Amino acid sequence: MPDTQVTRALSDAQITHFIESGFVKIEAAFPRALAEKCRAILWRQSGCDPDDPATWTKPVIRLGEYAGPFTDAANTPVLHLAYDQLVGAGRWLPRGSLGSFPIRFPSPEDPGDAGWHIDVSFGTEDPDFMSWRANVASKGRALLMLFLFSDVGEEDAPTRIRMGSHRAMARLLAPAGAQGLSLREMVAKGFGSAGDELEALATGEAGTVYLCHPFLVHAAQPHRGTRPRFMAQPALLPAEPFRLERPDGAYSPVEQAIRLALG
Fold it and tell me: Which residue, 81, 102, 218, 247, has most beta carbons within 10 Å?
């Protein structure tokens, strides 16, 4: 009988899109029923009533670390296969939780956290988060991941993504070597581009996951819809450092994107 075991979650076209644009969207990456179960937990922890908008008094609240069913969402077979394809088998660590949740509520107020940035990954012991750092080898982060636990349309504060911005970031970080740059320095340098990249929105149904290059520039935005948005944005942690020079040439798509950006 033929071997029917699934060994790939992403097509060649999806991997090419990841290398060129900096992200890939996986629909139904975890079950919708699991998203609903997790969302019920978050509602209870939020102190807000899902049926009473009068209790939604802030544009954003943050809750964090959650395991249990949240861990299950991060470790589905399709996601493990995708992690292998983008980072390399044996080169990443399974998630034990999903980190913090920025829950965004419909509001005319500025949420105060909607600036363009990349998620920095080391130096986090410094209490000044603007001093946290990233380097060209993406020390401490294998992927940025966006897990949608509610349906997210264009008015529901979807994360904004600068397509291809990971390439400019690689060129910006390379001269700084292993020390890298702080978030403050990256902001001052305009994240290595004029900001004229095409913009994508991380929309989708609950259970959708966006797997993003760690250098992808992205931003939050105000919520102009009617129902709160529930999303987690954890890092996939590396089991070993990325290498931009491999004698065997076995570069992961994350590494390939950096190498192509640097010529």
Answer: 218
